[in-house]
Amino acid sequence: MKPGRNFRYGALSVTITISVILFIVLLNAALTFLFARYPLSIDLTRNRVFEISRETEDILASLKRDAVIYVMNSEPNFISTVPQEYFIQANEVIKKYAQYSPRVRIEYVDLVRNPDFASRYPNEEIKMNDVIVTSGGKHKIIYPAELFNIFSSEYGNYVASSRAEQAMTSALLHVTGDRDYLAAVISGGGIQDLIPFLELLALNNYQIADVSLLTGEIPQQASVLILADPSRDLSLAELRKIDAFLEGGSGRVFFYIASVMQPPLPNLEEFLGEWGIAVDPGMVFETDTSRLISPSSYIAVADYAENSYSKNMKQRNLQPLVAQSRPLRVLYEEFRSRFTTVLLKFSASSGIRPANAQNDWMPSSAYITGNIPVMALTTQSRYDVNNNFIQTHVLALGSILALEESTLGNPYVANSAYFLDLLASLTGRGDFLFINDKIIGYTELNASYSQVMTMIVIFVIVLPLAVLGAGIFVWLRRRHK
C-alpha cells in the first residue's frame, strides 16, 4: 500500500522543519565562533576607542609565542566596575587581542570562586581586576590603575583617558620578548618628583633599579642612567663611574634632569660642559600668551628644535609642555667625536628670569633673548677595539616638572610619548611602541518633547498596529480560499 498524499506532505514538512532547525543551529554555532574569534563588530565612536591600533594588529600577527591573558574577575563584574565606561572600553580592548591572534587566549578568573589561582604567583599580590599577561615562564601584572590615566585634583581623583591598549601591548611585548631594559636611578636627588616618570617607564617594560654612586656600582645591564634634581654635587669618583657607564657599551644614555631649586653643582656642571651642555641659572619665561596654559609665564608649550627625534610627535600634532625650566646653552655643536643638538626650546618671545630676582619681579622686554634651549643632547660616536660602532648619549632637561604626573598623564601634550620615544631611539629599542591614550566621550541625541512623543506614537503604536493588521488580513484571506 502506497503512502497517502497527506503522509507524503507531512513527511516532507517534517524534513523541511528539521532541516531548517539544523541549519539555524549550525549557523548560530558558526556565528558564535566567528564573533568569538574574529573582529566582526563595528566601532562607530569618533576616536574608535573600542578598537586596537594598526601597530598592535601587526604585533599580534607576528607573534611567535603563545600567550594567555588572565582577567581577575568575571566578565560581568569586571565591566561593572566604576568608572564603568572605562572598564567596558578596557574589556573590549582586551578581547581584541584574542580576536586578532590565535596565539592569544583570554580567561576570566573570579578570585572569589577560584581563590587558589593566586597561588600560581606566590611572589605577587594578586587582587580583583588585575590583568596578568603570561607567556612561557614570564608574566606581567597590569593593575587596574595602569589601564587609565588618573588625575588628582583638589576635588578628588578622576579618569582622564584610557591607556588600556598601551598597557596590554607593552605587557605582551615584555612576556614574548627576549630582552629587558634597565633604567638605573641615582639616589640622593629628587626621586619623589620622579616617581610618575619611573612608573611610566615601568609600564613600558623598563626595569627600575636604584643605585648609590657613593657605595654601589651602576648595573652592567643598565641602558639608561637617570640623575634628577640632585641636592648635592657629585664627587670626582662618582663622575668617573658615570664615565665608565657611558664607555661600557653602545646605546647607553645618561639623563640629567635639572631644577630651579638646586644649589650650585660645579663638578657636575664641569662634567656636562665637557659634553657641550651648560645648565645656566635662572628660569625661562614666555611672553607669548598663546603658548601659556595658565596665568604663569613659566609654564608654556615648547618647540621642537630638530626633525629626527620629534617626527612622530609632529605627525600626531602634539607639543611638549615645560614648566619652571632652567635655561640650557650649547657650548659646541661638534668637538672631536661628540655632537651636540638642541632638542627643545622656547619661542622667540621667551626670556630668562635672573636667579637672584626678587619675588615681585615681572618679565619685561629687557630680559627677552628668545629661542632659549630647555633640552639638549650630546652624542659620542666611536669604534671600539673590535671595530664595533658605538654611540653613547648625554641628555639634559632643564625642568623636572616636565615629568610630573599631571603633565605625563595629559593626552593633549607630547610629554609621555616624546620622552619614551626619545629614550627608545637613543637606546636602540626595536620593540618599543607608544599608543595614544583614548578619551571616552558621549554624544547626546537631543530631541524635543514633541519629537519624543512622535517617535513613541510611531514605534509603540502605529508600527505594531500595522503589523497586526497585516497579519489579520493575510489570515482572513487564506481562511476564505
Give the key terms.
Glutaredoxin, 481 residues, nine-stranded mixed beta sheet, four-stranded mixed beta sheet, elongated, alpha/beta, Rossmann fold
Instruction: Note the total helix count.
Output: 12
CATH class category of the largest domain: Alpha Beta
Query: What is the count of distinct domains?
Result: 3
Q: Write down the overall geometry.
A: elongated
Gyration radius (Cα, Å) is 31 Å
Q: Kindly report the CATH topology of the largest domain.
A: Rossmann fold
Helix % is 25-40%
Assigned CATH superfamily of the largest domain: Class I glutamine amidotransferase (GATase) domain
* Whole-number mean pLDDT: 87
What is the assembly state of the chains in this entry? Answer: single chain
Report the structural category.
alpha/beta
Main sheet properties:
9 strands, mixed
Specify the CATH architecture of the largest domain: 3-Layer(aba) Sandwich
Strand content: 15-25%
Number of strands: 21
Low-confidence stretches: 442-449
Distance, first to last CA = 32 Å
Overall description:
This protein has 481 residues and is of the alpha/beta class. The chain folds into 3 domains: 10-40; 45-179, Glutaredoxin (3-Layer(aba) Sandwich); 180-427, Class I glutamine amidotransferase (GATase) domain (Rossmann fold). The protein contains 12 helices and 21 strands. The protein has helices at residues 5-37, 54-61, 75-78, 84-100, 164-176, 191-203, 236-247, 266-274, 311-315, 405-408, 415-427, 449-479, and strands at 67-71, 104-108, 131-135, 138-142, 148-153, 156-162, 181-186, 206-211, 222-228, 252-257, 277-279, 283-286, 299-301, 303-304, 321-323, 328-330, 334-335, 338-345, 350-353, 373-383, 389-397. Strands 7, 8, 9, 10, 14, 17, 18, 20 and 21 form a 9-stranded mixed sheet that branches. It has a 4-stranded mixed sheet with strand order 2-1-3-4, with helices on one face. The longest helix has 33 residues, at 5-37. It is elongated, with a radius of gyration of 31 Å.
